[in-house]
Specification:
- With 571 residues, the protein is an alpha+beta fold.
- The chain folds into 3 domains: 9-212, Four Helix Bundle (Hemerythrin (Met), subunit A) (Up-down Bundle), CATH 1.20.120; 255-401, Beta-Lactamase, CATH 3.30.450; 407-566, Alpha-Beta Plaits.
- The protein is built from 13 helices and 13 strands.
- The chain has helices at residues 9-74, 77-100, 105-135, 137-142, 146-254, 258-272, 313-317, 376-405, 416-433, 447-454, 456-472, 497-513, 542-558, and strands at 277-283, 290-296, 306-307, 321-324, 345-354, 357-367, 437-444, 479-484, 487-493, 516-518, 521-523, 528-535, 564-566.
- Strands 3-2-1-6-5-4 form a 6-stranded antiparallel beta sheet.
- α1 runs parallel beside α3 (105-135).
- The two termini are 97 Å apart.
- It binds guanosine-5'-triphosphate (GTP).
- This is diguanylate cyclase.
- The chain crosses the membrane at residues 181-207.
- InterPro entries: CHASE3, Diguanylate_Cyclase, GAF, GAF-like_dom_sf, GGDEF_dom, Nucleotide_cyclase, Rev_trsase/Diguanyl_cyclase.
- Residues 435-569 form the GGDEF domain.
- It catalyses: 2 GTP = 3',3'-c-di-GMP + 2 diphosphate.
Length: 571
């Protein structure tokens, strides 16, 4: 966003120029005023000089007069020489006075009058002096014409007074002018300084405000850039996380087993949430218990191996449930350790559902700062759980369809193809774990006779019932199948020979005690013969174990039917 300029900005340059012009004007006025004052002061000094020269001329004339009289009265040679010096000084003084007032014609005229009076007066003194020199002092005293001397002296004094008055008048006028100039100069300087100072202060305040504003805008811009970088980093991270989730979705489609799905999910959760731990649960066939199928991470919080829906808020409410350490631990799920999660850790439970049906639970715990509730990551984990639920449901559906294609429609038991596939797998699993595995071969006794007596349809009904009885007599993990005709096979993983004998005997007994309802008729009962072989004592391969169980079955038939025999036992 472009920064808007201050409303004073357009006036700043003209104001600065005005301040500069004012300062220049003050400078020029100061120079002019100073030179005018100097000139005025020079004129004042000149006036004083003129007044001084008038007084010097007066003093010189007076001195001449006094020395001439003293010489006439005393005849002392000292007064004579003083008189002669004074005469010379009168001339010098008048010359100096004339030079000083030459530019002022009225004063020049007065000075000339002064000089003329002084000349007349000096001529009279010189006449008396010459008389004294020639005829003696007495002759000079008697020849003194005091009237003439007094008149000349008065004229001289009058002219000197006029000159002095004139000079004093000029002095007053010049002083007044000088004062005016000084006042004007001071006013100009003070006003100029005040105006330029005010302009400078205003400019400084404006520039300071502008600087503050610029700094604030800079800080805001830096903050915005920082936030932008952060949000870019967040966007980048979110993009990577979305990419991770997209990759997860793609790979999920190709997973063939629950283990692959779980491992892929763990790897993805770890990439989305480094340092997380958690557990996967799947609902048991009883629809009650959720059993753990896998766990991952260092276990920031431990969760039980199995749980009831009532133990988990997420399962109870059918939606994600989050509790962060330090929050209300009353809402912590019962399947988590008491008092957890600790401060700084967040526990998240996500129901795994497919088409509205609960199929399990995903529990994840991670550092709270990495998994804020309502954050994009929280949402991504939620999406992962959704896809995980669908993938598990798809796998289960595929498994169901595959199982159905592998079942015998008459008995509901697995067919021989499924037996061949799963027998190998179960045998390898037990081999890896060091566990035993038993295989039963079961055959209905005299089934041909039953068929012949009650008809083929009754025979089918009997086979269907026996199938259900066999299925009811084994665990879900066991593989019960119709091997062919009236012959059945049951693979019992993890069951040793004694256990297999007990289980086979239970089936034989159940078949023996049952009757078949067919077309309103109660048929039977029938009996079964069962041969057993156990891994690893009787054989190590499915083929060998089946052959041995089959051989034992025929031994049971040979020994009188309706019995259970084990390959390892003689009878
Ligand atoms: N109803 C019906 N009968 C079948 C089916 N499959 C095979 N059978 C019959 O089962 C009978 C098997 O007879 P046998 O193999 O002689 O054996 P058995 O009569 O049971 O005598 P033992 O096994 O020696 O006790 C044959 O008659 C087959 O036709 C089927 O799917 N339905």
């Amino acid at each position: 966003m472009p920064a808007s300029r201050s409303r004073w900005s357009p006036y700043r340059v003209p104001a600065f120029a005005a301040a500069l012009l004012l300062l220049l004007g003050v400078g020029i006025a100061s120079v002019w005023g100073a030179s005018t004052l100097r000139s005025s002061n020079a004129w004042i000094g000149h006036t004083y000089e003129v007044i001084n020269r008038i007084e010097v001329a007066e003093r010189a004339l007076r001195s001449t007069e006094a020395n001439a009289r003293a010489y006439r009265l005393t005849g002392h040679p000292e007064f004579r020489s003083q008189y002669l010096i004074a005469i010379h000084q009168v001339e010098v003084a008048h010359e100096a006075l004339g030079a000083a007032i030459r530019d002022n014609p009225p004063q020049d005229a007065r000075a000339k009058r002064m000089h003329a009076s002084a000349q007349v007066h000096l001529a009279e003194l010189r006449r008396l002096f010459d008389l004294q020199e020639l005829q003696g002092a007495e002759a000079a005293r008697q020849a003194t014409d005091s009237g003439l001397t007094l008149q000349q002296w008065n004229e001289f004094e009058a002219a000197a007074s006029e000159m002095r008055r004139e000079e004093l008048s000029l002095l007053a006028e010049r002083k007044a002018r000088s004062d005016r100039y000084a006042t004007l100069l001071i006013s100009i300087v003070v006003l100029g300084m005040l105006l330029s100072g005010a302009l400078m202060v205003t400019l400084m305040a404006s520039v300071t405000r502008e600087n503050k504003r610029t700094r604030r805008l800079e800080l805001e811009a830096r903050g915005a850039a920082h936030e932008m970088a952060l949000s870019m980093a967040q966007v980048d991270q979110l993009s990577k996380q979305r990419h991770e989730l997209a990759r997860y979705s793609g790979l999920l489609q190709s997973c063939q087993t629950l283990e692959e799905i779980v491992q892929l999910s763990i790897a993805t959760i770890r990439r989305l949430l480094p340092g997380a731990s958690g557990r996967f649960y799947l609902i048991r066939a009883s629809q009650n218990f959720h059993d753990s199928v896998a766990s991952f991470g260092e276990g920031l919080i431990s969760s039980t191996d199995s749980l009831l829906p009532a133990d988990c808020w997420a399962l109870r409410r059918g939606q994600a449930h989050v509790v962060s350490g330090g929050e209300d631990l009353q809402l912590t799920c019962a399947h988590l350790d008491a008092g957890t999660p600790p401060h700084g850790v967040t526990a998240l439970c996500l129901p795994l559902t497919a088409q509205g049906t609960s199929i399990g639970l995903l529990h994840v715990s991670a550092a709270t700062h990495a998994m804020d509730h309502g954050s994009a990551l929280d949402e991504l984990i939620g999406q992962l759980a959704e896809q995980l639920g669908l993938a598990i449901a798809n796998l289960q559906l595929r498994e169901t369809l595959r199982t159905q294609s592998l079942r015998d429609p008459l008995t509901g038991l697995f067919n021989r193809r499924y037996l061949e596939e799963s027998f190998v797998r179960e045998l390898q699993r037990c081999d890896r774990r060091g566990l035993p595995l038993s295989v039963l071969m079961l055959d209905v006794d005299h089934f041909k006779r039953f068929n012949d007596t009650y008809g083929h349809a009754a025979g089918d009904a009997l086979l269907g019932q026996i199938g259900r009885q066999i299925q009811a007599g084994v665990r879900a993990e066991d593989i019960a199948c119709r091997y062919g005709g009236e012959e059945f096979t049951v693979v019992l993983p993890e069951l040793d020979a004694p256990g297999a004998l007990v289980r086979a005997e239970q089936i034989r007994r159940a078949v023996e005690l049952a009757t078949v309802q067919h077309l309103g008729q109660q048929l039977g009962p029938v009996t079964m013969s069962i041969g057993i072989a156990t891994f690893p004592v009787d054989g190590l391969t499915p083929e060998l174990l089946l052959q041995l169980a089959d051989a034992t079955l025929y031994r049971a038939k040979a020994e009188g039917r309706n019995r259970v025999l084990h390959a390892s036992y003689e009878d």
